[in-house]
Design a protein that fits this description.
single chain, 2 domains, 4-stranded antiparallel sheet
Length: about 375
């Protein structure tokens, strides 16, 4: 079999693009294009994933990326991140106070009763994972009826704007280390390369836009025994965080908008010694754009594992900052895996030449040995 370079060039590539577009419109004349509003709201969890992995909070553009890439989350995150790279940075926000989030969901698995109460909110956690076949032929009328029924009769006083933090109660009891309020410059992963050892802010920023499945897999390895973080969720929050920016004239912090985000704070095993004071619980933190609870929990677990690895040295892959942080970025991982689809004709031809030469030498050696063997 001969190995030759494939011919075609630009014309073949144009045909490939046309084939992709043809499959996107495969319904033909009877079909209708997906609206960005439908993708953004009816596939909100998918859109949230793209917001987080793309590192840009723009729900409509995240929906556009999903539409363009036909639901491929890695390609959609790649497109959104590429778009982000073309935009100028106008200013930076100061530290944002997540206790001011306008919550749609807030739970704690550490306590049954928490200040302000549990708020289950929108979740699949308490439903059976059964197919709803009625949605296969959902009518517009039924769709609109459901859309208008939620919170129809809920009194406004039952929906407080904010809730206190669960960790504050533990910290007041001395069960957690005191807050370190020393102002530190956050590591900017979009401007600076990761040179190890890296500060915790670099690890958190990297995981905040990491691929969800990658974070989950490595965090799961830690929970299964390749690590020792078996945390309890002190608080999991999903809601809209006000974005405070300095006013261009007065400098006073002013709300410029809000972003949907998920935040998770986990409490892990306690530690301490005589020199550090009494033993206290250790903490892990996770936060990301959009509604993505699995990612926030996985991130919090890995944050705790990486803190241990940075202090004591990594005993497991999930505690090694270099192993974790260089392998969880979906765009990087996809790019390296996909590059194997590109032409490798020259290198493979070289591999074949070496293999054929080695086989000839091996055959010659066997022949010589057989000739010299005593009769």
């Amino acid at each position: 079999m001969g190995y030759v370079a494939i011919r075609g060039g630009g014309h073949a590539i144009e045909g490939s693009h046309a084939a992709v577009e043809n499959l996107r419109t495969a319904e033909g004349e009877s079909g209708s294009p997906l609206s960005l509003a439908s993708i953004e709201h009816q596939l909100r969890l998918l859109t949230s994933r793209i917001l987080s992995e793309g590192g840009l909070y723009h729900p409509r553009l995240a929906a556009l990326a999903l539409k363009q890439m036909q639901g491929d989350t890695l390609e959609a995150a790649f497109a959104l991140r590429a778009y982000r790279s073309t935009k100028p940075r106008l200013l930076e926000t100061p530290l944002q106070d997540t206790s001011k989030m306008r919550l749609i969901r807030r739970i704690s698995s550490a306590f049954k009763e928490i200040p302000g109460g549990q708020m289950l909110g929108p979740t699949f956690d308490y439903a059976l994972r059964l197919m709803r076949l009625d949605l296969a032929n959902e009518s517009p009328e039924a769709f609109r009826k459901v859309a208008g029924s939620f919170l129809q009769n809920a009194p406004a006083e039952d929906l407080p704007d904010t809730f206190p933090k669960v960790l504050d109660a533990l910290r007041n009891e001395g069960l957690l280390p005191p807050l370190n309020r020393t102002a530190r410059q956050a590591f900017d992963i979009t401007r600076e390369p990761l040179v190890f050892p890296v500060p915790r802010s670099a690890a958190l920023a990297t995981m905040a836009r990491a691929e969800t499945g990658s974070l989950l897999a490595i965090a799961y390895s830690n929970m299964r025994g390749y690590g020792d973080v078996h945390p309890t969720i002190a608080e999991l929050r999903v809601g809209y965080l006000p974005v405070m920016l300095p006013h261009p004239v007065t400098g006073e912090l002013t709300e410029a908008g809000e972003v949907l985000m998920t935040e998770c704070e986990v409490v892990a095993m306690y530690e301490g010694n005589a020199n550090d004071g009494p033993p206290v619980f250790t903490l892990g933190y996770g936060a990301c754009f959009g509604h993505n609870e699995v990612k926030a929990i996985s991130m919090a677990i890995l944050d705790r594992a990486l803190q241990k690895g940075m202090r004591d040295g990594p005993a497991n892959p999930s505690e090694d900052p270099e192993f974790v942080l260089l392998h969880v970025d979906g765009v990087d991982s996809m790019g390296f895996a996909s590059h194997y689809k590109m032409p490798h004709y020259v290198t493979f031809q070289s591999d074949m030449d070496r293999l054929r030469t080695t086989q000839k030498k091996n055959l010659a050696s066997q022949t010589t040995t057989a000739t010299r063997a005593p009769a």
